Amino acid sequence: GNSVTQMEGPVTLSEEAFLTINCTYTATGYPSLFWYVQYPGEGLQLLLKATKADDKGSNKGFEATYRKETTSFHLEKGSVQVSDSAVYFCALSDMDYGGSQGNLIFGKGTKLSVKP
Amino acid sequence: NAGVTQTPKFQVLKTGQSMTLQCAQDMNHEYMSWYRQDPGMGLRLIHYSVGAGITDQGEVPNGYNVSRSTTEDFPLRLLSAAPSQTSVYFCASRENSAANFYEQYFGPGTRLTVT
Prior knowledge:
The complex is a heterodimer of chains A (116) and B (115).
Chain A lengths: L2 E4 L4 E4 L4 E3 L1 E4 L5 E7 L5 E7 L5 E4 L2 E4 L9 E3 L8 E8 L10 E3 L3 E6 L1
Parallel strand pairs in A: 2-12
Antiparallel strand pairs in A: 1-4, 3-9, 5-6, 5-10, 7-8, 8-9, 10-11, 10-12
Chain B lengths: L3 E4 L2 E4 L5 E7 L5 E8 L3 E10 L2 E4 L6 E3 L9 E3 L8 E8 L10 E2 L3 E5 L1
Parallel strand pairs in B: 2-11
Antiparallel strand pairs in B: 1-3, 3-8, 4-5, 4-9, 5-6, 7-8, 9-10, 9-11
């Protein structure tokens, strides 16, 4: 079945450090891939998305590239800020034309703490 | 445009009690869903609906009931609360088409504690 695996946290970085959060997936069909972010006490917000192989999603300095050959969608940011402290979720939505409803399947989340 | 709203924000129940978590959206989205979030488990799909009158089970449906009588509302009912249902519950909605590649919009969540 479809699944998402992301690196376990928590991840603690100093401000201006480089961030990578690994995400790999297993899916049939042609999934879209997403990174959602959850700030403390809030719901999930879409951070970025990619809908086909080699697409790069980007937002707020974060980037992720859809790599079909390695089934990966790693999240990166060149210089993190304290305000980036949050939980990050990788997710896929299966566009299987055999009848999938495009439900989201989430990884377990990675908590990022950025220290000044 | 309020997006997706959920009530209540917090709730404490005793084992065996029933209650309904409310979810509403004003974006005219056909697809709505309920997730629960537990530490170390990510978000897991409970039930979803692709339109009024149509619902289906997700990954963890046991102990929950849903109905969809209007496009706007998708309540989640706990029939007889159990401590295992202590969790944070999120409602989400999206267009029921591939136009936005299934991007979902989430409500702020309901934190439920069952004692």
